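Below is how a single chain appears once it has passed through the pipeline. First comes the sequence as given, then the structure the pipeline wrote out for it. We keep one example in the README because the format questions we get most often are answered faster by looking than by reading.
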Amino acid sequence: MKNIVIIGCGQGIGFATAKLLSENYSVTGISKTENSEIRDLNITFHPMDILTGNLDDIAFPEVIDGLVYAPGSINLKPFNRLTIDDFKNDFEINFLGAVKTVQKLLPQLKKSESASVVLFSSVAAKIGMPFHASVSASKSAVEGLAISLAAELSSQKIRVNAVAPSLTDTNLASQLLSTPEKRDASGKRHPLQRIGNAEEIAKMVEFLLSENSSWITGQIIGIDGGMGSLKL
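Resulting structure:
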């Protein structure tokens, strides 16, 4: 059975991914937050803030076949109200946490015959959206990291891709979807006329970790209801 590590498995897309993968993989999950169902899953769970915790305290499998870095942030403000600390916080959560995790687990990934790393960007890294300066900048850094690592690690048969969702129905987006009117308006901004859900994003992550995607690397894959590429 292949070993998968999921950072940010406590809620949202990370939890949906852990739930899906726990059926067919040996999953190690790390999160600072705990979904009430997380300990009911067939995974090895470690409560830890990835930014401040010490990964040396966790006994990871000797061989890691897949790594998913799912933490994210939604900090939407006019540019003149964003502080330097806002930018630093988004970069730490979205980018530096991914760097820290990949560097720590790279020796175990190299031992796999077909390792896959999945990072998370955002549709906001591709299209200009008001109030997204901090999130967009940090997610753009993730995309640069993904394609650079894909090139650097290809000779070692480690694939690296990023998933770039649009607004998804998760706890992270709860304030943006707090009323039926907001939910309806958000859905209508997408060509497919709805927002996404965590389970369909998780299915893409599962695909990217599997042998079915063995010839896919260095890609930024939009799951965004068409927002990132269509204009109707």
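The helical segments are 12-21, 84-110, 133-153, 180-188, 198-209.

See the next section for the split statistics.
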